[in-house]
Amino acid sequence: MLTFYDVAMGPPLHQRNSAVNPWKSRLALNFKNIPHQTTWVPLPNITKVRTNLGIPACRKFADGTDFYTLPILTDPTTSAKIGDSFDIAIYLHKQYPNSGGNLFPPQTLEYTYNPGVDILVPLSEINQSEYPQYARFNANVDAVFTMHTMLMVGGMPFDPETEEEAKKEFLRRAGLSSWDQFAIGVEARQQMLDSFEKALGDLAKLFGDGPFITEEASYADLIVGGWLRMANRTLPEGEWEALRGWHGGVFGRLHDALEVYAGVN
Ligand SMILES: N[C@@H](CCC(=O)N[C@@H](CS)C(=O)NCC(=O)O)C(=O)O
């Protein structure tokens, strides 16, 4: 049985998991129909868990220090330990070619998003070695959603047991001193929502009538689907409903079509 490490959010764990990169991998595991069990890791324990498994950090903070993250996947049959969502998808694709769907069918995936500013949150590194179209797509989709994650921060379902410690760490990273400073005024929030909708226009075009980019789902659909899962868990309900309906409802259709792969083991 494979072990999948996901971020523990407010109880019940299996209904509140919200972290985007673990979501991409969870959707991929289910899409590939791979039996696995989840280990829930509280935010403040991620560094310890990852270090104990001997997996180096794959992100860095703006100040150059290591940023230890999830997801992690361990596979006892091969002793593989993988600590990046994109690498996990490639691993599943190669190690289990005959199980489930095809994560990486050849396709061009032409989509770019230029945020116009330096993004504070370091983005997934582009793994140029394989499936560069997918790696580029992952980076661009990460960019468009990351630019608007401020909308989601306030709705993150922290686990009460570690909430204080987790919030303190988020504040440290952002150089802020109180959680209220993350709050956005009503007007600024509406502006950010408008910007989000507009920014997602080109991505929406790729899906046409949907629900997927092509006839069958691929890892590209799961990348967007992972972000939609996070949005669903963290946006106020009215805003989530609005997002579902943007651009002719493509994102709502994609989210619903991926429900079959969203089960938590
Ligand atoms: N490139 C990595 C990025 C992973 C990542 O950023 N994970 C976030 C959750 S989506 C995390 O573990 N954050 C821990 C924290 O903020 O302390 C991947 O794709 O797996």
TrEMBL record:
Organism phylogeny: Eukaryota, Fungi, Dikarya, Ascomycota, Pezizomycotina
SUPFAM superfamilies: GST C-terminal domain-like (SSF47616), Thioredoxin-like (SSF52833)
InterPro entries: Glutathione-S-Trfase_C_sf (IPR036282), Glutathione_S-Trfase_N (IPR004045), GST_UstS-like_C (IPR054416), Thioredoxin-like_sf (IPR036249)
GST N-terminal domain sequence ranges: 9-100
Species of the source: Penicillium salamii
Coiled-coil zones: none
Protein name: GST N-terminal domain-containing protein
